[in-house]
Amino acid sequence: MRRVPRPPAPPTLSSAKAERERAAAAAFYATWDGTAKYGKYSVYKAPDVKEALERAFSNKCAYCESTYGATQPFAVEHYRPKGEVTINGVRTPPGYYWLASDWDNLLPSCTDCNSPRAQELPGIKETAGKANAFPIGSESRRASRPGQEGREDRLLLHPYLDHPEKHLEFVWQTTGIDEGWVRASRNDSGRESRKGQATIKVCALQRRGLVEARRRVVRQLVGHLESLAALKAAIGRHPQDRGLREQFERGVADVATFVAEDAPYTAMTRQVVAAYYDRLFPPD
Q1: Cβ–Cβ under 8 Å, residues 187 and 193
Q2: What is the rounded distance in angstroms from the CA atom of residue 181 to the CA atom of residue 30?
């Protein structure tokens, strides 16, 4: 996951239809019997909502940064689940019905991050995927009506509200099975980020296929960066060699494609490039 600037809300979400839908849900839950489930939501799936999310996230999943455009449809995912919340393994209504068409609550998600599926994780096979999960620090502070969300200690990272790079770090250049893994970052006292831990678990960010995809990308990137480092050293020995400088410039352009907005796994690739930066561009 990477931080994304909050894009403007699409017009549909402020339309009369959206207001009617929100009012109908509020009226339903005002006299809720504690068991029935309201399911008449459609505004969040409007074409302009999907288009705005695709543009903002460059056709990538908000959680894992896999590109979905060419191979699979994406889901408009509710960051806080609209119908029910899984609490201690139990799907518990009513959920955050008042946020069903709230712009900040809508994110694009791939099938594997969003849906419970059998996944091969490090050392274990289990059903994983966000679905109706929304972990918080204390259940006693979970919101049950509009306006209470601010009291929650939310543990799931949000690309607009958080800086994911402060909570997630990636394993690379180990040549082992852990290359391409993601883990929670540690603070100065050595404690792992709770948000990092929760997001990795809830969205199955350690699933085998995703790790393998990240591994392929990071190995390609490191190969480019090592070539650049060798060229930089050669330029130091032969500063007048124009050909070497041109090769270096082409190599920098190649590396730039790995960290571009529409590239997959940029949270990882930007961490790797940052680690090489001083070698490639030493301070004067």
Answers
A1: yes
A2: 45
Cα–Cα distances in angstroms (integers) from residue 251 to residues 20, 230, 281, in the given order: 55, 11, 13
The string of pLDDT tens digits covering residues 133-155 is 999 999 999 999 999 999 999 99
Say what the pTM is: 0.94
Residue 246 tokens read as 């041109």
> How many Å apart are CA 170 and CA 178, to the nearest integer?
9
> Quick one: the chain helix, strand, coil %, rounded to 5?
45, 15, 45
Backbone angles phi, psi at 114, to 5 degrees: -90, -30
Residue in the block written with tokens 């705005």: 52
Q: What are the structure tokens assigned to 60, written together?
A: 């990538």
The alpha-carbon radius of gyration of the chain (Å, integer) is 22
The string of DSSP codes covering 118-160 is EEEETTEEEEE--TTB--BS-GGG---STT-GGG--B-S--TT
Written as six digits, the tokens of 241 are 């060699």
Q: Over the stretch 158-170, which tens digit does the pLDDT of each residue have?
A: 999 999 999 999 9
| Cα–Cα dist 92/95, whole Å | 7
* Two tokens, residue 133: 């999960």
Q: Which two tokens stand for residue 134?
A: 């929304």
Looking at the chain, how many residues does it have?
284
229 CB burial (10 A radius; 0-12, 13-18, 19+): middle
Cα 164 to its chain centre, rounded Å, is 8
| CA separation, residue 198 to residues 45, 144, 155, 168 (Å) | 27, 21, 6, 11
